[in-house]
Amino acid sequence: MESTDTPRPVTRELCEWISSLSLSDIPTEKVTRVKYLILDGLACALIAARLPWSEAAVKGVLTMESSGRCGIIGWDKKTGPLAAALLNSTFIQGFELDDYHSGAPIHSSSIVLPTLLAAVEHCDVSTDEQPLVGGAEFLLAAIVGYETGPRVGLGVYGIEVLTHGWHSGAIFGPAASAATAAKLFQLPASTIEDAIGIACTQAGGLMSAQYESTAKRMQHGFATRNGLFAAFMARNGYTGIKQVLERPYGGFLSNFSLGNGRTPAYVPGEVVNGLGERWEIDRIVVKPYASVATTHSTIDALMALQTRYPTQMAAVHQIRRIRVEMSEVSFKKCGWTPRRPLTPTGAQMSATYAAAMQLLEGEVQAAQFAPAQLERDDLWSLMDRIHCEQNMELESFQQRVHVELDGQAAPLTEFVTAPRGNGVPLSNQDILDKWRRLTADVIDSERQAAIERIVLQLETVQDVRQLARLLSGRTGNIFEAGYKTKL
After folding, report:
1. Beta-carbon contacts of residue 63 (< 8 Å; ≥ 6 apart)
2. Coil, strand or helix: which one is 91?
3. For residue 322, which phi and psi values (nearest 5 degrees)?
4. Distance from C-alpha of 466 to C-alpha of 451, rounded to nearest angstrom
């Protein structure tokens, strides 16, 4: 029997806020920032759409799904909304370059953008009952999604979920997708609650996918597909779990906090505290490196040492040992010891690999994960001298790196509190530069400029389908293009 205690109705509060939110309620600088987040997410999709694992995903999904109205980014193919949302999300997550939330890790663009594109194209019906979707509506729904996912995560202490082996974004993602689509559909609060209730019961994702499985790249896609499915079902009258977030028995927060050792085990108020005043958009981090976020402190520490001690750090053969101290969550996420053969997925989730590449090539971008890189003997020789260890005194992204050199008694040491993009966010201009550099080799300059123009002027766009059309159509393969860029 359910507890007689009456929890705070945070699900309803969240849904009422979503339903009532208008673009005029949102500070101008937040709206602007979201346009740049959208641009960054689209860049990630465009460069990953034709990678080998993305091609395998398309081939597999299209053996099961029929054609439809919804475009697949980077492909001259269309399919149904759920399959398109799944694949487009997989592409955004396809090369570990997409955004993440610093407190409640979720790759929001990989949830929000595929949801919106699929919803817009699937509902492409020229009737009075289904008017065209304008850029302002698209942008408002995106903001709802960027806010909802992290807030749901904060209710279970955000990054804590990773420590216990859940793929956090895949857990928080279904609610974000459902909220995004429900806002686009202009559903009332009670129906939004149904959508989130249907979405949350489909949440799942195991972090062990990080080692060798390409399924890791698809897990946000599962969340996107499930949330969009939930919104479509609720829109058509299917009822969902009410109070799904806060219910003590079988509720989302209570179940995904089991065994965390916290008191209280979960904090429902964090889902709604400061709605409309405290914007989680401010804590969405745009990545400068093509690897999992917890490796970024490692990269930054070594980069700082390379700047301070250029001669010593350039003599890689004289490095006797590197010791990387990490927090518990970082150690579990990226401190594991890689073994040969290593897949690109595993390499991008490994601090050891990221450290070796930073030392050997001075950057950790797409080119550093090309198949030939994974087989380098000098890389593996260096990785054998890099050791990660857990330090319970360190928190979150904090890391301390010690480089021991032959003939030098004292190690070179660097402490990083938070990595680049996290402690100091990338500027909108930085994001624009990243967009242009990432996409330069995979789409032509005319297409690049057209997408950029639409996204940065979304409020004025009358029919957002023109963005979807520009995203469809074949893109280049970054490995075949000899892709190499510094951000």
Report:
1. none
2. helix
3. -125, 130
4. 9
Specify the domain boundaries for CATH 3.30.1330.120 within the chain. 293-416
Angle between helices 108-122 and 135-154 (to 10 degrees): 140
Distances (CA, A) of 425 to 159, 273, 283: 19, 23, 9
Phi, psi of 361 (to 5 degrees): -120, -10
Collapsing DSSP to helix, strand or coil, 160 comes out as: helix
Measured CA to CA in angstroms, residue 72 lies from 46, 185, 199, 468 at distances of: 10, 21, 23, 9
Tokens read off for 259: 């065994």
Q: How many residues does the chain have?
A: 487
Question: Quick check: bond before 264 cis, omega within 30?
Answer: yes
CATH dotted code for 293-416: 3.30.1330.120
- Cα–Cα distance measured from residue 172 to residue 155, given in angstroms and rounded to the nearest whole number: 10
Give the pLDDT confidence of 134-170 residue by residue, as tens digits: 999 999 999 999 999 999 999 999 999 999 999 999 9
When pLDDT is averaged across residues 420-447 and rounded to a whole number, the result is 94
The answer to whether the CB of 184 falls within 8 A of the CB of 234 is no
Kindly state the helix (H) or strand (E) to which residue 143 belongs, with its residue range.
helix 135-154
Cis upstream peptide for 341 (omega within 30°):
yes
Is 152:107 a contact under the CB 8 Å cutoff?
no
Q: Are 355 and 324 contacting, i.e. CB atoms less than 8 angstroms apart?
A: yes
Distance CA 446, CA 328 (A): 46
Query: What distances in angstroms separate CA 454 from CA 80, 451, 473, one per listed residue?
Result: 24, 5, 17
Q: Which of 273, 285, 301, 258 is nearest to 163 (CA)?
A: 258
Residue whose token pair is 């050199």: 405
Phi, psi of 480 (to 5 degrees): -65, -30
CA contacts within 13 A on the Cβ side of 444: 5
Strand partners of residue 206: 166
CATH code for the part of the protein at 10-285 = 1.10.4100.10
The answer to whether residues 258 and 230 touch, using CB atoms and an 8 Å cutoff, is no
Question: Where are the CATH 1.10.4100.10 domain residues in the chain?
Answer: 10-285
Q: What is the pLDDT of residue 424?
A: 83
Buried b / exposed e over 304-338, threshold 16 CB at 10 Å, is bbbeeeeeebeeeeebeebbbbbbbbbbbbbbbeb
- pTM beyond 0.85: the answer is yes
